């Protein structure tokens, strides 16, 4: 319930309405609501495959239950300070939205199961620059998540609203800190494949290695149980990824690189060179100058300079 408006004295002051009665006070809430709608539109458009918004992990389609899952939370002062700190350190673009809950590059669409697992630090997502994929890591060794481990979720780094990879570093460190007795070393395939549902349902455009967004021709509503590309094997024929046991990796697998200074630097470099970073800077920049001025402004702000050393080495603790 909204707080009651304050009592004011008559007669009214000649220079404007009393405090809290100005239309600008109401506009603030309207602006926040509009900005959040922009956030939802951004991630829903990005995380749509074959015409349906889906969980990026398992591909489930149910708009009534899909969740907006935030990488950096927004409900506490600490999370808002984390967001501000990342901006100060240059881990996210200087032109990102002021609040984490308004920035679509800080969110993903997930089903309730995977959103809860993400928020409860059961798994993390690591962006691997060498293969340009966001890879699911079942750090808690949960039986429910074994089939997703070591495979890429449905996020395309070439998208203008792709999640900023550096944000997943913060989440990964929280997962590791929250579960200190799990094996530090995680085994993943040398060449991570896409999640099974992406392949079996024909979501992957094999020619461009991109994800299909549009609804299949002649389909009123996408059916997740139909395989649209008969040239691809059925879901049950895919071999599950080996679970993490702490033992030596099997053939075709290797240890996931730990978050040392070199790995952090590589992810930071990939983040600053990404289309998502560049698009974010463009969106937050005024282009009211001349053509030459705007060209220089674009080069100065979007052009990627040499990446500095990370401020902190997460592996130093």
UniProtKB/TrEMBL annotation:
Domain HNH nuclease: 55-125
Biased segments, Basic and acidic residues type: 308-317
Region (Disordered): 278-317
Domain of life: Eukaryota
Protein name (database record): HNH nuclease domain-containing protein
